[in-house]
Amino acid sequence: MAEIINMPRLSDTMEEGTVSSWLKKVGDQINEGDILAEIETDKATMEFESFHSGELLYIGVEAGKTVPVDSMLAIIGEKNEDISSYIDKKGSKQKNNIANSDNEKLEENTQTENKDRTLEKEVQNNFEIVKMPRLSDTMEEGTVSTWLKKVGDEVKEGDIIAEIETDKATMEFESFHKGTLLHIGVEEGKSTPVDEVLAIIGDKNTNIEKALKSIGQKDIIEEKETKQEIPQQENISSKNSHNLNVDTTKNESKNVLENFQTDRIFASPLAKKMASQKGIMLNNLVGTGDGGRIIKRDIENYMPSSDSSKKLEKESSNQIQNSQIRKTIAKRLSDSKFSAPHYYLNVEFNVDNLISFREQYNSQPETKISFNDLIIKASALSLSMHPEINSQWSENEITQHKHVHVGVAVAVEDGLVVPVLKFANNLNLKQIGLKVKDFASRAQEKKLLQNEIEGSTFTISNLGMFGIESFTSIINQPNSAILSVGSIIQKPVVKKDKIVVSNTMKITLACDHRTIDGASGSKFLQTLRDFIENPIKILL
């Protein structure tokens, strides 16, 4: 199926791009990662690589021409594929643009004037606003994982100033400006929507308070001023309170006076020990001993009030801020579960031959594959034979992919990520093993690249290594199915009318009923069973 390549947003302020030169021509074969063209942005000229493979069928923007972000740049697909409908849509859009050209020109002039005023204002203040960039096609907000520069540091064009966590991965963010880092708008660990103020870079003599006010960040200044005033007020209040306590307790015992002092709790050693054992906060108690001393009977008779219980519950609980990955998992899995009608097919495979095959394969020098690698390869081969499983639902059509891109769910600290093995059916077992290990290692370090976590056509989730016998998964849309793989267990089975001990593995296929019928899912699992129970066929 043809893939539409749009003008990318290659910088945080880019609104349109100019094709400086095409490095490929119509009819050329394109591989993932090939440099298609050089794109001139508002900041620099950058190489633009392809995320798709196929033949370059159409070029929509000639070299030297400028178009807005998201305009059709090119089409990549299969040789001789009919793309007339895509080009017609583009032509119709262009006609509408011409029909409304007068209004657009008027709007464009107005926008240009506004930009000029903004630019003039920024030049006068001598600073540049750095906004939260859109680092993936689905990114709505980003979290600053780490600042690699601090306020006052000199920044050069191309310097990495921060690591930004998107909904897909953690990526390095480089500066397109040079100057002094004057202001950090988002603290480490905090999230903000795309296009919100991330930082300000400019001349070191810039009045940052005026700069913040000029871009509508007056609240930040007021918040800082408030924080400066609060400690002073607290000091005055604390001082008055201390004087009052001294005046009102002159004739009382030393014990009572000490009980009023900050941070000291007046209690017997036995009471403290009992409170610690029972998890009772001493500052919630009123002592009945001499001078208000907390003693044994106060601990024994303590009945927590609802307010103190809530306080205790809050103090014994941890609140963990949701990461971008966790938010995205919650949103996408909820969308998938409630939009795609799931059903599940459960099977149990005999894996005696698979175990023997793996042992023989790994006996070769410098060779080591896992059961998961074998399942990935067997699944990829099965998918190539059952394209209805390797599919995607949309409102008007079902797309059955000819390429097999297998997503492999990897558990990370914040949840899971799904790096993708592209053209997995064409990879050998050793290649699959090396790629999966590399993905798993870099996933833990949040170093996966954007194109490594996009484009899956099918997903595998394996919890067998955790001792999970069987489970069901939620479909990773836009896939139509996901395979859940359980652990290998020994159990008595019947073979040739005899009960013997054998090794089995339970597998569950979750299907989207909009694209996959029960019979289709069952046939896929039959093919998968043949590969798993007769693994020599994987090599044939």
How does this structure look, described?
This protein has helices spanning 84-99, 101-125, 208-214, 218-248, 254-260, 269-278, 296-300, 306-315, 324-339, 352-362, 371-385, 429-444, 518-533, 536-539, and strands spanning 3-6, 16-22, 29-30, 35-40, 45-49, 54-59, 66-68, 72-77, 127-131, 141-147, 154-155, 160-165, 170-174, 179-184, 191-193, 197-202, 342-350, 391-393, 398-400, 406-408, 410-412, 415-417, 420-421, 458-462, 481-495, 498-512. The strands form 7 sheets. Strands 17-26-25-24-20-23 form a 6-stranded mixed beta sheet. It has a 4-stranded antiparallel beta sheet with strand order 1-8-6-3, with no helix packed on it. A hairpin with a 4-residue loop joins strand 4 and strand 5 (45-49). It has 4 domains: 3-99, OB fold (Dihydrolipoamide Acetyltransferase, E2P) (Beta Barrel), CATH 2.40.50; 105-216, OB fold (Dihydrolipoamide Acetyltransferase, E2P); 249-315, E3-binding domain (Dihydrolipoamide Transferase); 324-539, 2-Layer Sandwich (Chloramphenicol Acetyltransferase). It starts with a strand and ends with a helix. It is built from 14 helices and 26 strands. The protein is α+β, with helices and mostly antiparallel strands.
Characteristic key phrases:
Dihydrolipoamide Transferase; four-stranded antiparallel beta sheet; alpha+beta; OB fold (Dihydrolipoamide Acetyltransferase, E2P); 4 domains; 540 residues
Can you give me a brief rundown of this structure?
With 540 residues, the protein is α+β, with helices and mostly antiparallel strands. It has helices at 84-99, 101-125, 208-214, 218-248, 254-260, 269-278, 296-300, 306-315, 324-339, 352-362, 371-385, 429-444, 518-533, 536-539; strands spanning 3-6, 16-22, 29-30, 35-40, 45-49, 54-59, 66-68, 72-77, 127-131, 141-147, 154-155, 160-165, 170-174, 179-184, 191-193, 197-202, 342-350, 391-393, 398-400, 406-408, 410-412, 415-417, 420-421, 458-462, 481-495, 498-512.
